[in-house]
Amino acid sequence: MSEKHLQTGDILPPYTGKLRLFAMRFCPYAERSVLVLNAKKIEYDLVFINLDHKPEWIFNFNPKGAVPALEYEEGKAIFDSNIINVYLDEKYPEVPLQASDPLRRAQDKCLVELFASAQSAYYTAAFAPQNVEPSTVENYKKGLDLLQKELEKRGTKFLHGDEPGLIDYTIWPFLERFEALPLLGKPEFSIDKSKYELLVTYMEAMKNVPAVKAYTLAPETHAKFTESRVKGDANYNMLDTSAVCCMRPRKKKE
Prior knowledge:
Elements: E1 5-6, E2 19-23, H1 28-39, E3 44-49, E4 69-73, E5 76-79, H2 81-91, H3 102-127, H4 134-154, H5 166-178, H6 197-207, H7 210-213, H8 219-230
Parallel strand pairs: 1-3, 2-3
Antiparallel strand pairs: 2-4, 4-5
């Protein structure tokens, strides 16, 4: 699959009849929906969008021009990762990802809401040119503490239970990116294994979930993309090898 991000002037690829997700490869919100589609083993097409130079037709699928947007029928779409993912879980119930208990579903939503402050702290830290305010570090650490305590309270391998669920696929994309912060010169945002042993164990388990493993990127890759955005020239196509895949043979592994 090409990971080229389509931009202004590029034509909309033909509709194949599958679900089609419009995303951006480095967007954590779009990743949430990719992980849910993967977890449910639904066939889908993935179209990446350059968010700095958006193709004109993306506004037909989301008037805001944002991702993710899910085309569920030709020319018809819904948007926002939370809306998309609940729709997918209800439309394709064969692999249920939400808790069956209404109270647990509500608690999961509360957890996501409380974790949002850590997500905001991540963005501030990632795109701040130099040092960040102590309050940003505090909000970030509160998010880590929240997850550590919740994992201890629930006593399960994943937040959802013995298998990952919607709550895990919602939070994971940010945990994946948290590990890039020390590489961006922000050591105060490192995740101390001795303090967050349960959280670190949880993160390692998530990395090995097939739905995650098929899409996850290394901290070094996230750091490299973030650096390009900070410089004002986001390298959306840094992963795209479609132009050279037929020209350069792969090297044999030693």
